[in-house]
Protein backbone atom coordinates (compact mmCIF):
# COMPACT_ATOMS: atom_id res chain seq x y z
CA UNK A 1 0.00 0.00 0.00
CA UNK A 2 3.02 2.23 -0.46
CA UNK A 3 1.76 4.36 -3.34
CA UNK A 4 -1.64 5.02 -1.82
CA UNK A 5 -2.12 8.56 -0.60
CA UNK A 6 -3.05 8.54 3.07
CA UNK A 7 -6.10 10.38 4.27
CA UNK A 8 -4.65 12.91 6.75
CA UNK A 9 -6.21 13.04 10.16
CA UNK A 10 -9.69 12.02 9.14
CA UNK A 11 -12.15 12.31 12.03
CA UNK A 12 -13.79 9.09 13.28
CA UNK A 13 -17.22 10.08 11.96
CA UNK A 14 -17.33 11.56 8.48
CA UNK A 15 -20.76 12.80 7.37
CA UNK A 16 -21.24 13.64 3.72
CA UNK A 17 -24.10 16.07 3.08
CA UNK A 18 -25.45 18.32 0.36
CA UNK A 19 -28.31 18.98 -2.03
CA UNK A 20 -29.82 16.10 -4.01
CA UNK A 21 -27.78 14.88 -6.96
CA UNK A 22 -24.52 16.75 -6.20
CA UNK A 23 -22.44 13.60 -5.67
CA UNK A 24 -22.84 12.75 -1.95
CA UNK A 25 -23.03 9.01 -2.50
CA UNK A 26 -20.09 9.05 -4.89
CA UNK A 27 -17.92 11.08 -2.50
CA UNK A 28 -18.94 8.96 0.51
CA UNK A 29 -18.11 5.71 -1.28
CA UNK A 30 -14.81 7.04 -2.67
CA UNK A 31 -13.76 8.42 0.74
CA UNK A 32 -14.62 5.18 2.52
CA UNK A 33 -12.62 3.14 0.00
CA UNK A 34 -9.60 5.38 0.45
CA UNK A 35 -9.76 5.12 4.24
CA UNK A 36 -9.98 1.33 4.00
CA UNK A 37 -7.11 1.21 1.48
CA UNK A 38 -5.04 3.24 3.96
CA UNK A 39 -5.52 0.49 6.55
CA UNK A 40 -8.50 1.83 8.54
CA UNK A 41 -11.49 -0.40 9.29
CA UNK A 42 -14.30 1.57 7.72
CA UNK A 43 -18.07 1.32 7.57
CA UNK A 44 -19.95 3.35 4.97
CA UNK A 45 -23.61 3.72 5.87
CA UNK A 46 -26.45 5.13 3.78
CA UNK A 47 -29.00 7.14 5.77
CA UNK A 48 -30.77 8.39 2.63
CA UNK A 49 -34.03 6.39 2.43
CA UNK A 50 -33.54 6.43 -1.35
CA UNK A 51 -30.42 4.27 -1.03
CA UNK A 52 -27.95 4.39 -3.90
CA UNK A 53 -24.74 3.41 -2.14
CA UNK A 54 -24.94 -0.14 -3.51
CA UNK A 55 -25.32 1.27 -7.04
CA UNK A 56 -22.17 3.35 -6.58
CA UNK A 57 -20.17 0.45 -5.13
CA UNK A 58 -21.65 -1.95 -7.72
CA UNK A 59 -22.56 -4.31 -4.91
CA UNK A 60 -25.89 -5.56 -3.62
CA UNK A 61 -26.13 -4.16 -0.10
CA UNK A 62 -28.50 -5.04 2.72
CA UNK A 63 -29.64 -3.97 6.14
CA UNK A 64 -26.55 -5.38 7.87
CA UNK A 65 -22.98 -4.35 7.02
CA UNK A 66 -21.51 -6.38 4.19
CA UNK A 67 -17.80 -6.57 3.45
CA UNK A 68 -17.27 -5.03 0.01
CA UNK A 69 -13.47 -4.58 -0.06
CA UNK A 70 -10.58 -5.25 2.32
CA UNK A 71 -11.40 -3.47 5.62
CA UNK A 72 -14.49 -1.87 4.04
CA UNK A 73 -18.08 -2.65 5.02
CA UNK A 74 -21.22 -1.04 3.60
CA UNK A 75 -24.87 -1.06 4.63
CA UNK A 76 -28.22 0.25 3.43
CA UNK A 77 -30.40 -0.05 6.55
CA UNK A 78 -33.99 -1.17 6.02
CA UNK A 79 -36.05 1.98 6.65
CA UNK A 80 -39.31 0.14 7.44
CA UNK A 81 -37.61 -2.08 9.99
CA UNK A 82 -35.99 1.02 11.49
CA UNK A 83 -39.39 2.73 11.83
CA UNK A 84 -40.85 -0.37 13.52
CA UNK A 85 -37.90 -0.57 15.90
CA UNK A 86 -38.22 3.11 16.76
CA UNK A 87 -41.98 2.92 17.43
CA UNK A 88 -41.31 -0.16 19.58
CA UNK A 89 -38.66 1.69 21.54
CA UNK A 90 -40.82 4.77 22.16
CA UNK A 91 -43.73 2.52 23.18
CA UNK A 92 -41.52 0.62 25.64
CA UNK A 93 -40.25 3.87 27.14
CA UNK A 94 -43.82 5.14 27.50
CA UNK A 95 -44.94 1.85 29.09
CA UNK A 96 -42.11 2.21 31.55
CA UNK A 97 -43.20 5.63 32.67
CA UNK A 98 -46.80 6.51 31.92
CA UNK A 99 -50.03 5.35 33.55
CA UNK A 100 -51.49 2.23 31.89
CA UNK A 101 -54.85 3.86 31.21
CA UNK A 102 -53.42 6.41 28.76
CA UNK A 103 -51.42 3.80 26.81
CA UNK A 104 -54.11 3.08 24.17
CA UNK A 105 -54.10 6.79 23.27
CA UNK A 106 -50.29 6.83 23.17
CA UNK A 107 -50.36 3.75 20.95
CA UNK A 108 -52.79 5.39 18.51
CA UNK A 109 -50.65 8.50 18.41
CA UNK A 110 -47.52 6.47 17.65
CA UNK A 111 -49.25 4.61 14.84
CA UNK A 112 -50.11 7.92 13.18
CA UNK A 113 -46.63 9.28 13.87
CA UNK A 114 -45.00 6.30 12.18
CA UNK A 115 -46.51 7.47 8.88
CA UNK A 116 -45.60 11.13 9.39
CA UNK A 117 -43.15 12.86 7.05
CA UNK A 118 -39.58 12.66 8.29
CA UNK A 119 -40.19 9.51 10.37
CA UNK A 120 -38.16 7.33 8.00
CA UNK A 121 -35.20 9.67 8.13
CA UNK A 122 -35.32 9.95 11.87
CA UNK A 123 -35.63 6.17 12.28
CA UNK A 124 -32.55 5.74 10.08
CA UNK A 125 -30.88 8.12 12.49
CA UNK A 126 -31.40 5.59 15.30
CA UNK A 127 -29.55 3.05 13.17
CA UNK A 128 -26.77 5.56 12.62
CA UNK A 129 -26.47 6.10 16.39
CA UNK A 130 -26.13 2.34 16.92
CA UNK A 131 -23.22 2.21 14.52
CA UNK A 132 -21.71 5.35 15.99
CA UNK A 133 -21.53 3.51 19.30
CA UNK A 134 -19.48 0.77 17.61
CA UNK A 135 -16.72 3.24 16.66
CA UNK A 136 -13.84 2.77 17.47
CA UNK A 137 -14.50 -0.78 18.77
CA UNK A 138 -15.53 -2.37 15.48
CA UNK A 139 -14.57 0.33 12.99
CA UNK A 140 -12.04 3.16 12.96
CA UNK A 141 -14.24 5.29 10.72
CA UNK A 142 -17.92 5.61 10.01
CA UNK A 143 -18.68 7.40 6.75
CA UNK A 144 -22.30 8.50 6.33
CA UNK A 145 -23.92 8.96 2.93
CA UNK A 146 -26.72 11.17 4.18
CA UNK A 147 -30.13 12.24 2.97
CA UNK A 148 -30.34 15.62 1.18
CA UNK A 149 -29.66 18.75 3.26
CA UNK A 150 -33.04 19.48 4.84
CA UNK A 151 -33.12 16.10 6.53
CA UNK A 152 -29.50 16.17 7.59
CA UNK A 153 -29.85 18.80 10.29
CA UNK A 154 -32.99 17.20 11.68
CA UNK A 155 -31.22 13.87 11.74
CA UNK A 156 -28.19 15.18 13.56
CA UNK A 157 -30.22 17.14 16.07
CA UNK A 158 -32.46 14.25 16.94
CA UNK A 159 -30.50 12.74 19.84
CA UNK A 160 -30.46 16.14 21.55
CA UNK A 161 -34.18 16.64 20.85
CA UNK A 162 -35.16 13.23 22.20
CA UNK A 163 -33.21 13.60 25.42
CA UNK A 164 -35.77 15.90 27.14
CA UNK A 165 -38.57 13.46 26.22
CA UNK A 166 -36.76 10.53 27.79
CA UNK A 167 -35.72 12.67 30.76
CA UNK A 168 -39.37 13.69 31.20
CA UNK A 169 -40.46 10.04 31.14
CA UNK A 170 -37.80 9.21 33.74
CA UNK A 171 -39.14 11.98 35.98
CA UNK A 172 -42.68 10.61 35.64
CA UNK A 173 -41.44 7.19 36.59
CA UNK A 174 -39.51 8.58 39.57
CA UNK A 175 -42.69 10.22 40.86
CA UNK A 176 -44.64 6.99 40.50
CA UNK A 177 -41.96 5.01 42.33
CA UNK A 178 -41.71 7.68 45.05
CA UNK A 179 -45.47 7.53 45.55
CA UNK A 180 -45.32 3.74 45.96
CA UNK A 181 -42.44 4.01 48.41
CA UNK A 182 -44.23 6.67 50.42
CA UNK A 183 -47.31 4.47 50.58
CA UNK A 184 -45.23 1.57 51.90
CA UNK A 185 -43.40 3.79 54.42
CA UNK A 186 -39.96 3.86 52.74
CA UNK A 187 -38.18 7.20 53.07
CA UNK A 188 -36.05 9.03 50.48
CA UNK A 189 -36.40 9.38 46.72
CA UNK A 190 -36.29 6.66 44.10
CA UNK A 191 -33.14 5.87 42.22
CA UNK A 192 -32.19 3.45 39.49
CA UNK A 193 -31.30 0.69 41.92
CA UNK A 194 -34.92 0.59 43.12
CA UNK A 195 -36.55 0.21 39.77
CA UNK A 196 -35.45 -1.61 36.61
CA UNK A 197 -37.76 0.49 34.43
CA UNK A 198 -36.25 3.68 35.76
CA UNK A 199 -32.79 2.21 35.21
CA UNK A 200 -33.70 1.51 31.57
CA UNK A 201 -34.95 5.05 30.97
CA UNK A 202 -31.80 6.51 32.48
CA UNK A 203 -29.64 4.19 30.39
CA UNK A 204 -31.45 5.38 27.28
CA UNK A 205 -31.08 9.02 28.32
CA UNK A 206 -27.32 8.53 28.82
CA UNK A 207 -27.01 6.92 25.36
CA UNK A 208 -28.82 9.84 23.72
CA UNK A 209 -26.72 12.39 25.60
CA UNK A 210 -23.57 10.49 24.65
CA UNK A 211 -24.57 10.40 20.98
CA UNK A 212 -25.48 14.10 20.93
CA UNK A 213 -22.10 14.89 22.45
CA UNK A 214 -20.08 12.64 20.13
CA UNK A 215 -21.84 14.09 17.08
CA UNK A 216 -20.46 17.47 18.09
CA UNK A 217 -16.97 16.42 19.13
CA UNK A 218 -16.01 13.49 16.89
CA UNK A 219 -17.93 14.07 13.68
CA UNK A 220 -17.36 16.46 10.83
CA UNK A 221 -19.92 17.33 8.20
CA UNK A 222 -18.59 17.71 4.68
CA UNK A 223 -20.88 19.41 2.19
CA UNK A 224 -20.64 18.46 -1.46
CA UNK A 225 -21.51 21.29 -3.85
CA UNK A 226 -21.52 21.99 -7.57
CA UNK A 227 -20.56 25.21 -9.35
CA UNK A 228 -24.20 26.36 -9.34
CA UNK A 229 -25.66 29.33 -7.47
CA UNK A 230 -28.75 27.42 -6.35
CA UNK A 231 -26.65 24.60 -4.95
CA UNK A 232 -24.36 27.00 -3.08
CA UNK A 233 -27.29 29.00 -1.71
CA UNK A 234 -29.00 25.93 -0.25
CA UNK A 235 -25.76 24.55 1.13
CA UNK A 236 -24.87 27.92 2.68
CA UNK A 237 -28.17 27.88 4.61
CA UNK A 238 -27.47 24.31 5.72
CA UNK A 239 -23.95 25.30 6.78
CA UNK A 240 -25.31 28.13 8.94
CA UNK A 241 -27.88 25.88 10.65
CA UNK A 242 -25.36 23.10 11.22
CA UNK A 243 -22.79 25.46 12.71
CA UNK A 244 -25.30 27.15 15.01
CA UNK A 245 -26.48 23.72 16.20
CA UNK A 246 -22.89 23.03 17.28
CA UNK A 247 -21.75 20.72 14.49
CA UNK A 248 -18.29 20.99 13.01
CA UNK A 249 -17.98 21.62 9.30
CA UNK A 250 -14.97 20.07 7.59
CA UNK A 251 -13.70 20.77 4.09
CA UNK A 252 -16.35 20.96 1.41
CA UNK A 253 -16.07 19.25 -1.96
CA UNK A 254 -16.58 21.25 -5.14
CA UNK A 255 -17.64 18.35 -7.34
CA UNK A 256 -17.39 18.27 -11.12
CA UNK A 257 -15.36 21.45 -10.70
CA UNK A 258 -14.94 23.76 -13.66
CA UNK A 259 -11.55 24.38 -15.26
CA UNK A 260 -8.49 24.51 -13.03
CA UNK A 261 -7.65 28.04 -14.11
CA UNK A 262 -10.94 29.40 -12.77
CA UNK A 263 -10.80 29.75 -9.00
CA UNK A 264 -13.96 31.88 -8.74
CA UNK A 265 -16.22 29.02 -7.63
CA UNK A 266 -13.63 27.70 -5.23
CA UNK A 267 -13.43 31.06 -3.45
CA UNK A 268 -17.18 31.58 -3.63
CA UNK A 269 -17.81 28.18 -2.07
CA UNK A 270 -15.36 28.74 0.76
CA UNK A 271 -16.79 32.16 1.50
CA UNK A 272 -20.46 31.23 1.33
CA UNK A 273 -20.14 27.96 3.22
CA UNK A 274 -17.71 29.26 5.82
CA UNK A 275 -15.73 26.02 5.68
CA UNK A 276 -12.03 25.56 6.50
CA UNK A 277 -11.23 24.53 2.93
CA UNK A 278 -12.64 23.42 -0.41
CA UNK A 279 -11.35 20.37 -2.26
CA UNK A 280 -12.03 20.25 -5.98
CA UNK A 281 -13.04 17.07 -7.72
CA UNK A 282 -13.00 17.03 -11.51
CA UNK A 283 -15.73 15.31 -13.50
CA UNK A 284 -14.72 11.75 -14.32
CA UNK A 285 -14.74 10.71 -17.99
CA UNK A 286 -17.26 7.99 -17.31
CA UNK A 287 -19.76 7.51 -14.49
CA UNK A 288 -17.72 6.61 -11.40
CA UNK A 289 -19.32 3.28 -10.50
CA UNK A 290 -17.52 0.36 -8.87
CA UNK A 291 -14.45 0.29 -6.61
CA UNK A 292 -11.83 0.91 -9.29
CA UNK A 293 -13.36 4.11 -10.65
CA UNK A 294 -14.29 5.32 -7.18
CA UNK A 295 -10.70 4.78 -6.05
CA UNK A 296 -9.47 7.21 -8.70
CA UNK A 297 -11.78 9.87 -7.23
CA UNK A 298 -10.77 8.88 -3.70
CA UNK A 299 -7.10 9.42 -4.50
CA UNK A 300 -7.89 12.87 -5.93
CA UNK A 301 -9.82 13.74 -2.77
CA UNK A 302 -7.03 12.47 -0.53
CA UNK A 303 -4.44 14.48 -2.43
CA UNK A 304 -6.55 17.54 -1.63
CA UNK A 305 -6.33 16.62 2.08
CA UNK A 306 -9.91 15.29 2.28
CA UNK A 307 -11.60 14.48 4.65
CA UNK A 308 -9.80 16.92 6.90
CA UNK A 309 -11.89 18.42 9.66
CA UNK A 310 -11.36 21.65 11.48
CA UNK A 311 -11.90 19.72 14.64
CA UNK A 312 -11.34 20.71 18.21
CA UNK A 313 -10.49 17.15 19.20
CA UNK A 314 -9.35 15.52 15.95
CA UNK A 315 -5.70 15.72 16.96
CA UNK A 316 -6.18 13.89 20.24
CA UNK A 317 -6.39 10.32 19.02
CA UNK A 318 -5.12 10.19 15.44
N1 LIG B 1 -16.90 13.61 -10.05
C1 LIG B 1 -17.84 13.00 -10.78
N2 LIG B 1 -17.60 12.74 -12.11
C2 LIG B 1 -18.54 12.14 -12.88
N3 LIG B 1 -19.75 11.78 -12.44
C3 LIG B 1 -20.05 12.00 -11.15
C4 LIG B 1 -19.12 12.63 -10.26
N4 LIG B 1 -19.70 12.72 -9.05
C5 LIG B 1 -20.93 12.17 -9.17
N5 LIG B 1 -21.16 11.74 -10.42
C6 LIG B 1 -22.39 11.13 -10.95
O1 LIG B 1 -23.48 12.03 -10.72
C7 LIG B 1 -24.67 11.34 -10.37
C8 LIG B 1 -25.17 11.79 -9.01
O2 LIG B 1 -24.20 11.45 -8.01
P1 LIG B 1 -24.61 10.85 -6.59
O3 LIG B 1 -23.33 10.51 -5.90
O4 LIG B 1 -25.61 9.77 -6.74
O5 LIG B 1 -25.27 12.15 -5.95
P2 LIG B 1 -26.16 12.29 -4.60
O6 LIG B 1 -25.82 11.15 -3.72
O7 LIG B 1 -25.76 13.60 -4.03
O8 LIG B 1 -27.59 12.29 -5.03
C9 LIG B 1 -24.30 9.85 -10.41
O9 LIG B 1 -24.63 9.35 -11.67
C10 LIG B 1 -22.78 9.87 -10.21
O10 LIG B 1 -22.17 8.72 -10.76
MG1 LIG C 1 -27.10 9.73 -2.87
Automatic annotation (TrEMBL):
- InterPro entries documented for this protein: ArsA/GET3_ATPase-like (IPR025723), ATPase_ArsA/GET3 (IPR016300), P-loop_NTPase (IPR027417)
UniProt keyword annotations, A-Z:
ATP-binding, Nucleotide-binding
Which Gene3D superfamilies does the annotation name? Answer: P-loop containing nucleotide triphosphate hydrolases (3.40.50.300)
Q: Is the keyword ATP-binding in the record? A: yes
The GO terms this record gives for MF are: ATP binding; ATP hydrolysis activity
Q: ArsA/GET3 Anion-transporting ATPase-like domain: from which residue to which, for each copy? A: 13-262
Family from the record: Belongs to the arsA ATPase family.
The protein in question is named Arsenite efflux ATP-binding protein ArsA
Amino acid sequence: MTDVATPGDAPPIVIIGGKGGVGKTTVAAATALTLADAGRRTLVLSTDPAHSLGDALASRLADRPKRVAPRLWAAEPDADAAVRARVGQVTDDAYAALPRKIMPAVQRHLETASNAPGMTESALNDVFIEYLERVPRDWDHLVVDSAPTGHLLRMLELPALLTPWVRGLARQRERAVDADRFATGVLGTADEADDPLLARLHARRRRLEGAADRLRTEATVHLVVLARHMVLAESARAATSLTSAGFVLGDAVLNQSPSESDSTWHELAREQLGVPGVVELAAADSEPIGPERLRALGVALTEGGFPRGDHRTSTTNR
